[in-house]
Amino acid sequence: MTDKSDVYVTKPFLPPLAELMPALEQIWESRELTNGGVFHQRFERELATHLGVPFVSLFTNATLALVTTLQCLRVTGEVITTPYSFVATAHSLLWNGIEPVFVDIDRETLGLDVSRVEAAITPRTTAIMPVHVYGRPVDVDGLQRIADTYGLKIIYDAAHTFGARYRGESLAAHGDLAVLSFHATKVFNTFEGGAIVCRDVQTKQRIDFLKNFGFSDEVTVVATGINGKMSEFHAALGLVQLQHVSDCISKRAKIAARYDNAFSSVPGIEVLPVLPGYESNFSYYPIFVGPEYGTTRDLLYLRLREAGIYARRYFYPLISNFPMYRGRASAAKADLPVAHAVSESVICLPIYPELSGVDQQRVIDVVEDAS
Ligand SMILES: *Cc1c(COP(=O)(O)O)cnc(C)c1O
């Protein structure tokens, strides 16, 4: 191994601890730790304002939020979704006894291929669960047209989208419901955390009951709810993190631009195309290793590891290849050719606000040398 320090695909941003201390002192003083306290209320309001969305309901994590969206909209039967995502997307369906139906992805958006969605609709289909992969927009208009035609709900797994904007608004503003993740590895983190974005106050109220066991008041339980509440500690951290997130995204943008510049002259390395109307949050920096490159994706991945660079193959394997999914008819490889090709060529390179120029150059050198 080298004497240089290891570089991981991400390094969570944390604010100076001193900025959090006043909130911690207030929590210690008040002993108000959870159940919709003052920090929770403030963070919900400031987050909705920051994102420019009508209502936000905070959660312990995005996975419980996804599970809750399906309960909220009483989704049953089959749901059309993508195999090219983190496994939590499809797991949220199985946790609700819903059959995931995988549809191939589009090579440009890397989200659901809208031209293939209609053919997957059956009388049992009640909703679509698309993912804005790497925080980039899937074809939201095309999906909405299909949902309107067939009376389907759309629940976006918007876990990657914090700070990403499309046609002047937050990507999380689309769909009946959208779910954000504030996990440590995401652009905006509260250690663990998540949220559901919704459009009206009645829906927010139902979500708020569902995340608190279904209690609507001290003695009334209106639904089979779960415990998905965000604590005061996490909400207080979120309020401080909000002050820094725009600066974090600008730093990520500079790193992405340097990669773009370096890889434009490396044969066989493809980067994400520019999308009109899209303002990125630079949450991930995927490269796609093509046949003209000097070696295979997996050998490049190993070369990076040998150099102490822990890149990740997001998303490999596909969700449809995991044991609880691969037996399903819609998981057949022949029907998911684009997802397989993308999954077998992708590597996500390190990108985070504190990535130094020297460490970024080490990543670039390995990619250039292996070509
Ligand atoms: C991170 C992630 C999740 C899960 O988020 P948690 O907050 O860790 O539960 C779900 N979907 C996608 C696409 C993700 O990347």
Features:
371 residues; alpha/beta; three-stranded antiparallel beta sheet; 12 helices
List the helices and strands and how they pair.
Blueprint: E1 7-8, H1 17-30, H2 38-51, E2 55-59, H3 62-72, E3 78-81, H4 88-94, E4 99-102, H5 114-117, E5 125-129, H6 140-150, E6 153-157, E7 165-166, E8 169-170, E9 177-181, E10 194-198, H7 201-210, E11 215-217, E12 220-221, H8 232-242, H9 245-263, E13 269-271, E14 278-279, E15 285-289, H10 297-306, E16 309-310, H11 337-343, E17 346-349, H12 357-369
Helix pairs in contact: 1-8, 2-8, 3-4, 3-7, 9-12
The chain binds pyridoxal-5'-phosphate.
Q: Count the helices. How many?
A: 12
Estimate the helix proportion, in percent.
25-40%
CATH homologous superfamily of the largest domain - what is it?
A: Type I PLP-dependent aspartate aminotransferase-like (Major domain)
**CATH class identity of the largest domain:** Alpha Beta
End-to-end span in angstroms? 22 Å
Q: Which geometry do the CA atoms define?
A: globular
Average of the residue pLDDT scores: 97
Relative strand content: 15-25%
Task: Give the names of the bound compounds.
Answer: pyridoxal-5'-phosphate
- Radius of gyration equals 21 Å
What's the CATH topology name of the largest domain? Aspartate Aminotransferase, domain 2
Order of helices and strands: EHHEHEHEHEHEEEEEHEEHHEEEHEHEH
Sheet with the most strands, sense and barrel status? 7 strands, mixed
